[in-house]
Amino acid sequence: KNEVEQSPQNLTAQEGEFITINCSYSVGISALHWLQQHPGGGIVSLFMLSSGKKKHGRLIATINIQEKHSSLHITASHPRDSAVYICAVDSYDPRLTFGEGTQLTVNP
Amino acid sequence: GAGVSQSPSNKVTEKGKDVELRCDPISGHTALYWYRQRLGQGLEFLIYFQGNSAPDKSGLPSDRFSAERTGESVSTLTIQRTQQEDSAVYLCASSGSAGANVLTFGAGSRLTVL
């Protein structure tokens, strides 16, 4: 069993839909990262959070430390949101542990 | 610079040759990471540097891989006697310090070993 599991692995949505990507982990953590990787490989850090909720534009990330679970939400999805979304945890180990990623495709 | 710079962006080499990949982190970032991403796979940790501490080399897959960092600046990842399985995108990231800090990734160096 991986220490970090994401679901779903693949997600296809229509433009405008509300999207949720989930991340569950099995270790104690100091922080959780959500990353976005576009075709072509570039990785962008979306959020780093250790408690509660963060919002940036149409993106919202939440974390429940007790349940060892985080969600990434995208409101009013757009085709440009199509990317791989990666959850990574800092389990007091700077190397980070990565989930396998969720491939999101938003169709116009 | 404003971001993490990696070079070359693309490298095609013949099996058995040595390659050097360079990472220029954000100025002032004390932590620097190298990751490898094979086609269709997730990120694989290779090595990380934190300030002047000894690097964590636990992710290096073989003794053909080595990395250096000069102080808190440029890092070089060297792969000797390249093999086809070394073909991947090599990503560098830096952060203000190790642990619980936002990572900034470079665009990666795509290595193809023929």
Report on this model:
The complex is a heterodimer of chains A (108) and B (114). By secondary structure, chain A is mostly beta strands. In chain A, 0% of the residues lie in helices and 58% in strands. The termini of chain A are far apart. Chain B is an all-beta fold. Chain B is 0% helix and 46% strand. In chain B, strands 2, 4, 5, 8, 9 and 10 form a 6-stranded mixed sheet that branches. In chain B, strands 1-3-7-6 form a 4-stranded antiparallel sheet, with no helix packed on it. The N and C termini of chain B lie far apart (33 Å). Chains A and B meet through strand 4, strand 5 and strand 9 of A and strand 4, strand 5, strand 8 and strand 9 of B.
Low-confidence stretches of chain A: none
Percent range of helical residues of chain B: under 10%
Summarize the biggest pleated sheet of chain A.
Answer: 6 strands, mixed
- Give the helix tally of chain B: 0
List low-confidence stretches of chain B: none
Number of helices of chain A: 0
What is the tally of beta strands of chain A?
11
Distance between the termini of chain B: 33 Å
- Which strand-content bin applies to the residues of chain A? over 45%
Roughly what percent helix of chain A? under 10%
What would you call the structural class of chain B? mainly beta
